[in-house]
Amino acid sequence: MLKDATAIVGIGQTPFAKQLPETEKALACRAILAALDDAGIAPSEVDAFASYTMEETDEVEVAKAIGAGDVTFFSKVGYGGGGSCATVGHLAAAVATGQASVGVAWRSRKRGSGPRPWKNTAVQLPTPGQWTRPYGLLRPADEIGMLARRYMHEYGATRDHLFNVALACRNRANQNPDAIMYERPLTREMYMTSRWISEPLCLFDNCLETDGALACVIVSAERARDCRRKPVYIHSAAQGLPAQHHGMVNYWNDDPLSGPAWTAARHLWKNADFGPQDVDVAQIYDAFTPLVPLSLEGYGFCGRGEGAAFTEGGALELGGRLPLNTGGGGLSEAYVHGFNLINEGVKQLRGTSTAQVPGAATCLVTAGEGVPTSAVLLRA
Amino acid sequence: MLNPVIDEDGAPFWEFTARGELRVQGCADCGELRFPPRPCCPHCQSFATEWRLMSGRGRIWSYVLPHPPLLPDYAEQAPYNAVLVELADAPRIRLAGNVVAAPDARLDSVDPARLRIGAAVRIAFTEIDGLAVPRWLLERG
């Protein structure tokens, strides 16, 4: 069984900025070495790696740069931000089954200073993009905006609900000195008068564009007890690719608004000792604000169509029903394909977050909804 | 502008649009329609396919109004509309497209205030680089 058999014992990160001078590879090495130092584990002991696709630095480059030992497990998870929690899940499975003993998951990106992926017209037109992009659905914001407008139409969700998500993330970023939006508060007026990106989504419904890297270290629960920091146990992990799912343009099945979160959630909770009502704090993937109400529904915090209403009354703020994205998330801390959500979950369960939920013992971390996704449940 | 990429699975779609027909791939054994086109039927696993003629009528399921930053040819027409049309004959198949004032009109040729979820539309075709590309006209033109 995977349950609590492994733990995250080290986390590391670089600064976050619109533009950092170092390469993607150098940033990856810095984050990984910081995570290993945090764990008190020598780089030569690393024998497993997991990361995502889309970026250039691979495990060969990383392993030889940091001085890793013989590596016996390595994996890459596809679908952009949908892969974040799966990197942890894959390493947890590898360590729990004896395929490796010290795993490093990482993400390094130059999305602040580098090119926007949607501008690469050579790679964006295979199925299903060939059926959508020629009509001007060019960017993820356009593809998710389409689902967002339908969601608003079906369930009476409003821009104020999306603002609740943006505001909760920004408020937590305002407490986090490492967050890009640390010193920049958000008001309702700023939100309502900001420019459109793809109506119904405005500027503040979109995540940041960030240079930066993060990493975490995974070992067995037994070894974790001897590490430098308090272990954060990987209680449950799941990926989700629903039947007849089409990726971010999930437009051709019975129910485009119930996405991969539902699939991942069923498996995640099935293997857990607790349920959504027992989650103390959540880190929910927020490349776009509407992904949060959709995820709240998918992971069972509320019923179908209730995700927008769930955000009312400060529910996502500290002291609310479900404090969310307590480092500021992709919307206001940094957009590093959701890896900052994983590390923030670890900080909460160590008790070291800049927006600490008192006594937090359980945390849900999710990857991108709307693409083949993944999630982990962490416990102190 | 980005032209549709024609692959083996989708090639018949474009052969039919060139004749002014909207056809959707279906299973020649169990009859189930599917989109985007693919080699075999997810319901009965048959590789026998047929292309079923659609009426070309549908309703707007949702839409967005993209604003820059966009690729240059699209930025020049922004804000424009991009819609999903739920086909009257096959409601689970929602074709992406654009609502325009006339088949060859610009992507921003319809006032966005006239767009509504549920609005009835019908297909038209415009020729782009030798391909007959679907466009959508409001039924209450």
SS strand fraction of chain B: 35-45%
Low-confidence sequence ranges of chain B: none
Structural class of chain B: mainly beta
Helix and strand sequence of chain A: EHEHEHEHHHEEEHEHEHHHHEE
**What gap, in angstroms, lies between the N and C termini of chain A?**
18 Å
Radius of gyration of chain B: 16 Å
Whole-number mean pLDDT of chain B: 96
Number of separate structural domains of chain A = 1
How many individual helices of chain A? Answer: 12
Oligomeric description of these chains: heterodimer
How is the main sheet of chain B built? Answer: 5 strands, antiparallel
Name the strands of the widest sheet of chain A in spatial order: 3-2-4-7-1-8-11-10-9
- Radius of gyration of chain A, in Å, reads 19 Å
Strand tally of chain A: 11
Helix content of chain A: 25-40%
For the largest beta-sheet of chain A, the strand count, sense and barrel status come to: 9 strands, mixed
Q: What is the molecular shape of chain A?
A: globular
Number of helices of chain B: 2
